[in-house]
Amino acid sequence: MDKLITFIKASYDELLNKVTWPTWKELQANAIIVIIASFLIAFLVLVMDKASMFALSNVIYNILG
Question: What's the CA gap between 65 and 55, in Å, rounded?
Answer without folding.
Answer: 15
